[in-house]
Every structure is written in C-alpha cells, then in structure tokens.
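Lab meeting tomorrow. Please check the following:
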Amino acid sequence: MELWDIYNSNGIKTGNVMKRGDIIKEGDYHLAAEVWIINNKSQILIQKRSENRKVLPGIWGMTTGCIVSREDSLNGCIREAHEEIGIVLLKDNLKKLKRVFRKDTIWDVYVIKQEYDLSKAKLQKEEVSDLKWVTVTQLKEMLSNSEAFEYPEIYEILSLIQNTYLLQYN
C-alpha cells in the first residue's frame, strides 16, 4: 500500500496522508516528479510506458513517478529512476527546473546531465517497455505524432531545457 502526503494549493504539506487510489479532495494535491536526463550529445532519454499501464499505455515520455509519504521530490525522483530504468542519479547533479500544478498533482520537474548505457538498463517491466535517446527534433516529432505524451507545459519545459541546459552542455 503506497501512501501519499497531501499538499495545499501553496505546495505545503497539510499533515494529512492518503492511500494511492483513494479519491483526493478538491483543493488537495499529491506530489510527483519528472526527470529529463540529457547526455553529452544533447539527447534526451525517454522511456516507453508498458502496454499494461492503465494510464498512457505504450506512450513515450520522461521518467516520472509519485512521491511517497515522508519523501521529498528530489529523493523520489532518484528512487523512481532507479526502480523504473535502473539508473543511479546523483542528488548533487539534479537541478530542479520547474514546479507545475496540474489538476490534483504537483509536478516537480528535474534535469540532469548524465550518460547512460542503454544496454545496462534494468527495466521495471510493469512500468517500462523500452528506452531510447532522442534529439529535441525527434522528441518534437514524436509529440506531434502522438507517440510521446504531450502535456500542457511540455513545450515550455523543452524550451527551458534547450535554452538553458543544452547550450551549456554542448
């Protein structure tokens, strides 16, 4: 049973906890994280969601996950990436890019520059069916073809990454 801390509209913990799957009250939020992993070739690591997933089966996207009770988004981001794809992310190398409030979820979006040999990946098969490195152009094409998950803020986040992180990594 996974427990989530409840946050208010200011992103502050309320002290309440809920079980994953329970209905969240209007005005309450739970915390989630997304990580953009960028290599030295300015490629972005994306993962394909398992066909067995209830939400967005077979769709490409970033590594994401819900943050469990008493965990912050940074540590949750590290945990989720390791659980889902077997990568070890170093806390000091992760940069918080943005906080997004959407529906009943607060998304903390992180970026990290890190190499990863896909042949060494250990995929959590219930969650992830494939991994690949893509260029910004390829990702935009996948978004326009509905192969990758196009959420409202993705182009703003992609622009931030292009203008801030990809330039300094080239």
Q: What stands out?
A: Strands lie at 3-7, 13-19, 30-38, 44-49, 60-61, 63-66, 95-102, 105-113, 128-134. Residues 3-169 form a domain with the Nucleoside Triphosphate Pyrophosphohydrolase fold (CATH 3.90.79.10). The first strand starts at residue 3 and ends at 7.
